[in-house]
Design brief:
The protein has one domain (38-370): Ribonucleoside hydrolase-like (Inosine-uridine Nucleoside N-ribohydrolase, Chain A, Alpha-Beta Complex), CATH 3.90.245.10. The chain is built from 14 helices and eleven strands. It has helices spanning 3-31, 51-61, 79-92, 112-122, 172-182, 196-204, 207-211, 238-242, 244-251, 263-266, 273-280, 285-293, 300-309, 359-370; strands at 38-43, 66-72, 100-102, 135-138, 144-147, 187-191, 214-218, 258-261, 314-324, 335-339, 350-357. Strand 4 and strand 5 form a beta hairpin. Helix 2 packs across helix 3, helix 5 (172-182) crosses helix 6 and helix 11 (273-280) packs antiparallel against helix 12 (285-293). The protein starts with a helix and ends in an 11-residue tail after the last helix. The protein binds calcium ion (CA). Calcium ion (CA) binds next to loops.
Length: 381
């Protein structure tokens, strides 16, 4: 073999070796189990089987999510009652391994008394969550249900049975701070209720914002006439209205990314009896629980959970500057927003707001997750 030929052969083998190595490394990487996204679910968990609990269960059921814990905040019900509903639902789903943490019992500034003063001047709100006085409440879907008010410390007997497990001793805010430090850049804070816990976490440790991967939330309302808690105004959405000052703190912080599921998209969905009948074919304790307690409703928080797991269900979304009115007058707690090209003060932050979805794909995803065998979401040993 002549020298040039030998040289060429050597180069050929050298090149082949590099190519082989690249192929080997690429295939090894493909075989690595992809890391499951780490999520903290912060929720006002009214039970049994409401949008609040159902969204928690979607995360608990998914084998593709690393649910670090559930942090509870007062909203749709008082904190202590929500906590036992959450523990019981996780027990039924075979996921008592997921730790539950108690957070804030009251909003930062807003209060039941102030809401009564507001209503006396501007009109009665459709629902006030934990603060709703004893009365018959007309739900957005037209049904009328009787609600009994009780104090924060009262935990009525649960129709679905009391849990045998307990909440963790650590406070929700400290858990959030500890997790974002333990897994910098990896933790998604998913908020399905008032933002009190997240605001307190930011105020206790501002690094929460830079250490979290992103903020995903259900809240706010834009151009919608229904779905809000005031008969004429969808911009007064429950989660944001309940603790407006917390929203101001959270929405003014420099998160890497904020994704919002507003009322506008919730009202395009409906959890029908047909969906629960479909799930009940699974014949698991969870399917039976949903069949017994889940009621037709807009799927507020379930969309925020589903879109996080599979963004392709969203067919229309838009970047906008979004915040909240904290003037303690008629407009207290209303969503405020402007288009992306409008010049705004520095504390306004851009958020991606979801406006439309593929409802069939969304319903299928919900049915699939809720029909999985008990404990399907548990980490593999
Ligand atoms: Ca909620």
């Amino acid at each position: 073999m002549s020298n040039p030929q030998r040289h060429m052969t050597k180069r050929f083998f050298g090149f082949s070796l590099i190519l082989l190595s690249v192929v080997f490394i690429a295939s090894a990487a493909a075989q690595q189990p992809t890391a499951r996204p780490k999520v903290i679910v912060d929720q006002d968990a009214r039970g049994p089987a409401t949008t609040d609990i159902q969204s928690i269960l979607m995360f608990a059921q998914s084998p593709d999510i690393d649910l670090l814990g559930v942090t509870i905040v007062t909203g749709d019900q008082w904190l202590k009652e929500e906590m036992v509903h959450t523990l019981r639902a996780l027990e039924i789903a075979g996921r008592s391994d997921i730790p539950v943490y108690m957070g804030a019992e009251n909003p930062l500034v807003n209060s039941r008394e102030e809401s009564e003063f507001w209503e006396a001047q501007y009109g009665v709100l459709a629902t006030k969550g934990a603060w709703t006085p004893t009365r018959d409440v007309k739900l957005p879907d037209g049904r009328v249900v009787h609600r009994e008010y009780h104090a924060p410390d009262v935990v009525p007997d649960l129709p679905e049975g009391m849990p045998t497990t307990k909440a963790q001793p650590e406070h929700a805010v400290d858990f959030i701070i500890r997790m974002v430090h333990q897994y910098p850049g990896e933790v998604t804070l998913w908020a399905g209720g008032p933002l009190t816990n997240i605001a307190l976490a930011i105020r206790k440790d501002p690094e929460v914002v830079s250490l979290a991967k992103q903020l995903v939330l259900m809240g706010s309302g834009f151009n919608v006439g229904m779905g809000g808690i005031h008969r004429i105004n969808g911009r007064r959405e429950f989660n944001w209205w309940f603790d407006p000052e917390a929203v101001r703190i959270v929405m003014s912080a420099p998160w890497k990314k904020i994704t919002i599921t507003p009322v506008d998209i919730s009202v395009k969905t409906r959890l029908s009896d047909q969906i629960n009948n479909e799930i009940s074919k699974a014949d698991t304790p969870l399917a039976r629980y949903l069949k017994q307690y889940s009621r037709p409703s807009y799927m507020w928080d379930e969309i925020a959970a589903a879109a996080f797991m599979d963004p392709s269900i969203i067919t229309d979304q838009k970047e906008m500057y979004v915040n909240i009115d904290i003037d303690h007058g008629a407009s207290y707690g209303q969503t405020i927003f402007v288009e992306k090209d409008v010049k705004v003060p520095g504390w306004w932050k851009l958020a991606t707001v979801q406006f439309d979805l593929n409802v069939d794909k969304f319903y299928q995803q919900y049915i699939r997750l809720m029909s999985l065998p008990t404990g399907a979401g548990k980490p593999k040993q």
